[in-house]
Design a protein that fits this description.
Helix content: 40-55%
Number of domains: 2
CATH superfamily of the largest domain: P-loop containing nucleotide triphosphate hydrolases
Largest sheet: 5 strands, parallel
Radius of gyration: 22 Å
CATH class of the largest domain: Alpha Beta
Strand content: 15-25%
Low-confidence stretches: none
CATH topology of the largest domain: Rossmann fold
CATH architecture of the largest domain: 3-Layer(aba) Sandwich
Strand order of the largest sheet: 3-6-9-1-10
Structural class: alpha/beta
Order of helices and strands: HHEHEEHEEEHHEEEHEHEHEHHEHEHEHH
Distance between the termini: 34 Å
Length: about 350
């Protein structure tokens, strides 16, 4: 939307956003049973312009969700199955020599860039933690800057660009933990749980009978980009933005790099490295999506709190004492939300 948009135009754009969000969600529900919280998290990350990491045991529908989302969006879709022998060029593409017949009887050779599966608007990085760190790092530039550099030449990726990665948390043999720098580039980390009794019954009914549902495309690139631009225009008051900032600062334990002003005793005891500024960006942008979905023109503190867990959990590096005690990043975030005052005390430093 333009800066001189009228209130009526902004209201119409907000209504269009909610309609498209609901249409995409309904198309996913035609195929994916339950998992409403995970679907909401994925869609918030999509409309906020971020990327999402789905973690869960095998067979609970992570890949199905991503594939269905791709069907509901009129965008190009690429899938990368991560394996230990996958190379960076298998993701980004490579330069090859191609023979072209310039004139009869004369063949001319030239270098041509063959794009890899990363050159799609929606990219499924399936079982991302099965590839080596060298290959995982091929996604770093793409996720942050929407471009890749191959053989010294930079290639822009399509817009919009959305990476959805999956990983298995229990099968550790033959896996490589994601580097902190790459985890930080995911807008949300969503933990996919088991289905309920009723949901599992419906899954069995759909997958063992004649039912063969599929999603229809209901949103194209132009409208998605317009919605992403609209999200950034949602207002946020200074005290709400400060709450998001204090949430992030609360994850910083007292040490050489931080005075630990907002850290709780739990953070000081169990956290080795706190969240980065990208966490604050995720909190604010995700809060803007939540506000718009609920028909409000400004972000509330409750919006920030509602998305704090998926925005922060993967950005905390726990120490050895946390591992020995069984304390997780989710426990730390819950502790922060319980103890952090809604109103700031003192002036901004």
């Amino acid at each position: 939307m333009a800066d001189d948009s009228t209130p009526e135009q902004l209201q119409a754009a907000a209504d269009a956003f909610r309609a498209d969000y609901g249409a995409v969600r309904d198309q996913i529900a035609r195929v994916v049973v339950g998992q409403e919280r995970i679907v909401e998290g994925v869609l918030i990350a999509l409309f906020a312009g971020g990327h999402a990491l789905l973690e869960g045991v095998p067979g609970i529908g992570k890949t199905l969700l991503v594939r269905t989302l791709a069907q509901a969006l009129d965008l190009s879709f690429g899938r990368v199955q991560f394996t230990p022998d996958l190379m960076p060029a298998d993701i980004t593409g490579t330069t090859v020599v191609r023979e072209i017949e310039s004139e009869p009887g004369r063949v001319q050779r030239e270098f041509v860039f063959e794009p890899g599966p990363i050159f799609h608007s929606i990219v499924l990085a399936d079982e991302i933690n099965r590839a080596t760190p060298k290959t995982q790092s091929a996604l770093l530039e793409a996720m942050q800057e929407a471009r890749v550099t191959v053989a010294g030449e930079t290639h822009a990726l399509p817009r919009p660009f959305f990476v959805l990665a999956t990983q298995n948390p229990i099968e550790q043999e033959g896996t490589y933990p994601l580097p902190e720098a790459q985890l930080d580039r995911f807008f949300f980390k969503l933990q996919v749980g088991y289905s309920t009794r009723a949901e599992l019954a419906e899954i069995v009914n759909r997958t063992t009978g004649a039912h063969d549902a599929s999603a229809e495309p209901v949103l194209d690139a132009e409208r998605l980009l317009a919605h992403q631009a609209l999200i950034r225009e949602v207002a946020i008051a200074e005290h709400v933005r400060d709450y998001a900032v204090r949430c992030v600062l609360s994850t910083h334990p007292k040490g050489p790099d931080s005075d630990g002003q907002f850290a709780t005793p739990t953070v000081n005891r169990f956290v080795r490295v706190g969240a980065s500024p990208r966490a604050a960006q995720s909190l604010v942008l995700g809060g803007k999506v939540k506000a718009l979905l609920e028909g409000r023109a400004a972000v509330s503190i409750d919006d920030i709190r509602a998305i704090a867990l998926p925005a922060l959990r993967h950005r905390l590096v726990m120490n050895f004492e946390a591992q020995a005690d069984g304390t997780t990043a989710d426990d730390v975030v819950a502790n922060i939300l319980e103890t952090l005052p809604r109103e700031a005390t003192g002036a901004l430093a």
